[in-house]
Amino acid sequence: MDTESTYSGYSYYSGRSRGSHRHGERSHDRHKSRGKDSRSEKSVTITAPPAEPLLGDPHVRGEQVQDDNWGETTTAVTGTSEHSLSQEDVVRITKDLEESVGLECRRYLGLTLAVVLGLLVFLTPLAFLALPHLLWPEKLQSCGTACEGLFISVAFKLLILLLAVWALFFRPPRAGLPRVFVFRALLAVLVLLFVASYWLFYGVRILDSQDENYQGIVQYAVSLVDALLFIHYLAIVLLELRQLQPCFSVFVARSTDGEARHYNLGQLSIQRAALAILERYYCDFPVHNPALLTASKSRAAKHLAGLKVYNVDGPGNNAAAVGMVQSQSRAMIAAAARRRDTSHNELYYEEAEHERRVRKRKSRLVVAVEEAFTHIKRMQEEEQKKAPGDIMDPREAAQAIFPSMARALQKYLRTTKQQHCHSMESIQQHLAFCITNNMTPKAFLECYLTPGPTLQYSRDHWLARKWTLISEASVTSGLKDGSTFVLRCLDFGLVVTTKRIPYIQMSEEYIDPKSHKFVLRLQSETSV
């Protein structure tokens, strides 16, 4: 029988008083063990909880331990205390605030410079056409039919250039990169120098001399617009088309659980390659679950803590004490070796027991969900006979059937260490969505039985996460064969290794069709 204690949304808070004493003992032991392992991690990291745990306390989120009832006594365990702040924390928080302000200023500064440059580019041809009419209108020659046709050409070319610049440059930013994009900066400098040179020539040859040939001035403005269109074509080649052909194969591995993927990338800088990898990471990698990593740590600690040596003869002189220490060390090593020989059996049976429990909880969950959806169908048949005002909406129906499956779902999520990824509110919303779209119980359970990518879960799990790019080479340099860099966040890191796609030499071999012909010769001799 399953003796695990469970609770509903109404009876949860009654279990907190029972678990407070157990939490004090566990947290004291963990303070001592963690203080010996990592002396540098004395600071406290304070993060806001992403969502309300399933049927749990919305104000407390702690470290998952091995038993299934860890959610009842969940607390925040740190290296020093639950609510302490060291001087390092204050410095780090101040630095983070300064960096966030700097990033926002740099983001809006780049947007402001782009807008100013764009206005300069689009107003320059119009200024070339308008200044002669404002400064020396009486000296200008009349504009003929060809000149008036050039006006139409300038107008449509400027409209096309405006739409092209809006589509290529004024897109919502996907991320904040640590360095400036080299090709984009070079194109901006090129456009600025180009427009400045046109203005210099216009001022020296047209404004100073007050040129009377207005058709030549219009053709000068048309040549400027044509050159700007060619620069936009160059921007498309450098920013979009250059990176389409795959040149490198990158291997991305997560540092905690070893989850890995391979991707093909083109000619990109290191920071843009990191951005492309992160965009694919959120869609391809399963969600990072640190609770699954605590089993091996607790198992190793249990094996080391189980070895004790007693001195039954009592303390002696120094020489005897030294000999006793050496004998105790040898005894510890021998005992550890004997235990290591049998540890694989313990691991095997432990994993087999965990798989058995997961299968049992899964079968109970599937049955409970199928019964709940069967009840929904009966409710729908009964509501068809009622008046329109008495029919429940999908949200009310989800809240009505959720308690019947909450216990089985809670046990399964605890066993598979997924309870921190799904809140009660998100489960009810998903249930209402399935009821609205007439989905089956299997479709409802798919996101709980199979861990999905990070984007499948709440936005708090991935939206505000800050990544740090660590690379020996400059992040603005291009990818090379053997390049290695790390994308690190708060909980884990992505180690990226680059390999160049080899050059493939293909040859052709011609096969003569006549070489496939053959002759079948039968012997005329018989056995008769």
Overview of the structural elements:
There is one protein chain. The protein contains eleven helices and five strands, in the order H-H-H-H-H-E-E-H-H-H-H-H-H-E-E-E. With 528 residues, the chain is mainly alpha-helical. Helix 2 packs parallel to helix 4 (182-207). It has helices at residues 16-37, 87-135, 145-168, 182-207, 214-241, 270-284, 294-305, 318-383, 394-415, 424-436, 441-449; strands at 248-254, 260-265, 468-471, 484-488, 493-500. The termini are far apart. The relative contact order is 0.10. The protein is 54% helix and 6% strand. The model is unreliable at 1-85 (pLDDT under 50). The chain has a five-stranded antiparallel beta sheet, with helices on one face.
Order of helices and strands: HHHHHEEHHHHHHEEE
Strand order of the largest sheet: 2-1-5-4-3
Termini separation: 85 Å
| Helical residue percent band | 40-55%
Low-confidence stretches: 1-85
Mean pLDDT rating: 75
Pairing-aware structural class of the strands and helices? Answer: mainly alpha
The main sheet comes to: 5 strands, antiparallel
- Which quaternary structure do these chains form? single chain
Radius of gyration: 36 Å
Shape: extended
Fraction of residues in β-strands: 5-15%
Quickly count the helices: 11
